[in-house]
Amino acid sequence: MFNTLTTGIVALQVWSVAIPAIVIALIVAILLLSMIRIVKEYERAVVFRLGKLIGVKGPGLIIVIPFIDSVRMVDLRTRVIDVPRQKILTKDNVEVTVDAVVYYRVFDPEKAVLAVENYHHATALMAMTLLRDVVGQVELDDLLMRREEINKKLTKLLDEITDPWGIKVTAVTVKEVTLPESLLRAIAKQAEAEREKRARIIVAEGELHAAKIMAEAAKIYQERPEALVLRQLQTLVDVAREKNLVVIAPSDLSTSVGLVTALQRALQRRSSSSSTEERVG
User: 92 and 31 in one domain?
Assistant: First the structure.
């Protein structure tokens, strides 16, 4: 019985020493693990010690002191902001609905953390404001036809404003411009009127060209009467090619009837010879 009691006392003493040691080891292991941070290639860690900036670290393995150091991770990849649709009044007092897309990246993590509270949200709000300002300074025709120039202007203005924040704006693109329904109908009517105008101009130009050619031909026929006779004969020959037609020649072409008859006979012979060859074949 004495031995059993002694063994129990020894076991209690061992556990009383082992349990604190195990707890201390666990705490040390947790602290060591919390000291190790892995920063990815496209990230940077902005480290503060007791609230004071000590530098930008990464990529790779970094060591921080638990409860003393705080870390703010910054993504260096290009990010996209979808600027929501908003109604804007153009310079010529036309209400349009415009949306846009902004592409940007962080080039200075330190400025992105220290200069602005939330650089992503701030860039999005600034893009909305600039979109309204720029579109309000241009007329509707320029907004529809000079989209690339407006995109470049938006990109330049937004990049200049966000540069102190460590932000590089690579592109701002106006996605869609929606016009009012009444304006769309007016534009459609204008386009239809423009097409009709062009069609009438083309027809008038064709008639003018034909009139000039006919005037030149009349002048030639007046100077060379035989040319007019030959033209009339050619017309009769063309008519004679048709079957089952009776051609009545004008009185002033009576001298040329013999020639027309000869041409008709020649055509008939050619037609007969062609029929004979087809039968033989």
Answer: no
Domain end position, chosen among 75, 90, 112: 75
For the stretch 119-147, pLDDT in tens is 999 999 999 999 999 999 999 888 888 99
State the residue range of the domain holding 59.
Answer: 2-75
Asked if residues 97 and 143 have their Cβ atoms less than 8 Å apart, the reply is no
Q: Which residues pair with 44 in a beta bridge?
A: 74
Q: What is the CATH number of the domain that holds 121?
A: 3.30.479.30
End position of a domain, from candidates 54, 75, 96: 75
Residues 240 and 166 placed together within one structural domain of the fold? no
Q: Structure tokens of 240? A: 């004679």
pLDDT in tens, 3-49: 555 665 655 565 666 777 777 878 777 777 778 889 999 999 999 99
Length of the chain equals 281
- pTM score: 0.62
Residue 87 near residue 97, CB atoms below 8 Å:
yes
